[in-house]
Write a structure and sequence with these properties.
By secondary structure, the protein is an alpha/beta fold. The chain folds into two domains: 188 residues, Rossmann fold (3-Layer(aba) Sandwich); 65 residues, no CATH class. The chain contains nine helices and ten strands. The strands form two sheets. Strands 1-10-9-4-8-7-6 form a seven-stranded mixed β-sheet, with helices on both faces. Helix 7 links the parallel strand 7 and strand 8. Helix 4 crosses helix 5. The chain binds adenosine-5'-triphosphate (ATP) and magnesium ion (MG). Magnesium ion (MG) binds next to helix 2.
């Protein structure tokens, strides 16, 4: 009982009015897959310049949601606006759920990162400069002239993230970017992602299947229900950045994680 009261004091729920500066507004989203409803009249707001982590049961439609917002999959109904603009007017970066399938295997790491810049019409010299900038920003310690199969999983995922940021997107989507990585690589890339966020202020929307990781990285944690999928709750975690391993034992962190787990248990079963 007393623990519950503690959660209530510590956990701030935000509503639409509580987010200052929206980057993504989804209204009336409806999507059926395989004849079953996944989303029905679903609304969502994502704050600008924040990290939002999405956490929900397996198969509730997290990847489908990101794919629809990113314009890779058509919803049956609904509207999406990005700072009031349509999708065609914003730059989006996307890191896919499975890094093994994400990179072009016939291209060296460098050429993979350059690929969106080539599509955008940048000269060879401009592309080289941008890759060097990213390599410095990410403190890359391996040879970017290697092919993906010559790199570790963590290195390949880093290349995927660098590629997604090459065109300086306004919004970066990451679908379980650490799920196939070992713990050491996960910690290292998580912290690099925090550094990039601090340096660029890019809006980040990340799906995670690890609640601890979601709370650790997020300003806003979006807890989803089982299908038909709704937002069970939005939770705010305002600890200062950079967050470190000490954050994991911070009482506010512990309380918010416990509260989120309670909501998840209630809504996922
Ligand atoms: N093309 C499709 N046709 C029919 N059903 C589909 C299709 N793609 C996905 N689904 C189903 O829709 C649901 C949502 O899938 P999605 O991959 O978005 O879930 P998720 O929350 O990302 O899952 P996970 O936690 O496994 O990554 C799942 O039940 C999946 O089996
Ligand atoms: Mg998924």
């Amino acid at each position: 009982m007393s623990a519950n009261v503690g959660y209530q004091n510590n956990v701030k729920q935000i509503n639409q009015a509580g987010i200052s500066g929206l980057d993504i507004v989804v209204t009336g989203l409806t999507k059926y897959l395989g004849g079953k409803v996944l989303y029905e009249d679903f609304d969502l707001q994502i704050a600008r310049g924040k990290i939002t982590c999405i956490f929900g049961p397996n198969g509730c439609g997290k990847s489908t949601l990101l794919n629809m917002i990113a314009g890779l999959l058509q919803p049956d109904k609904g509207q999406m606006k990005f700072g009031g603009k349509p999708r065609s007017q914003v730059q989006i970066g996307y890191v896919f759920q499975n890094y093994r399938d994400a990179l072009f295997p016939w291209l060296r790491a460098r050429a993979n990162i350059e690929y969106p810049l080539l599509s955008a019409g940048l000269s060879r010299r401009q592309r080289q400069i941008r890759v060097e900038e990213l390599a410095q920003q990410f403190n890359v310690g391996f040879d970017l002239d290697r092919y993906p199969y010559e790199l570790s999983g963590g290195q390949q995922q880093l290349v995927s993230i660098m590629r997604s940021l090459a065109t300086r997107p306004n919004i970066l989507f990451l679908d379980e970017p650490f799920s196939a990585l070992d713990y050491e690589a996960t910690l290292a890339i998580r912290d690099k992602l925090q550094d990039v966020f601090a340096a660029t202020g890019v809006t980040i929307v990340m799906i995670s299947h690890d609640l601890e990781e979601a709370v650790y990285l997020a300003d806003h944690i979006l807890l989803l229900t089982k299908r038909p999928t709704r937002i069970a709750e939005r939770v705010v975690f305002e600890a200062s950045r950079p967050r470190t391993l000490d954050t994991l034992s911070d009482p506010e962190f512990v309380s918010i994680k416990a509260h989120s787990l309670d909501v998840f248990r209630r809504e996922a079963s």
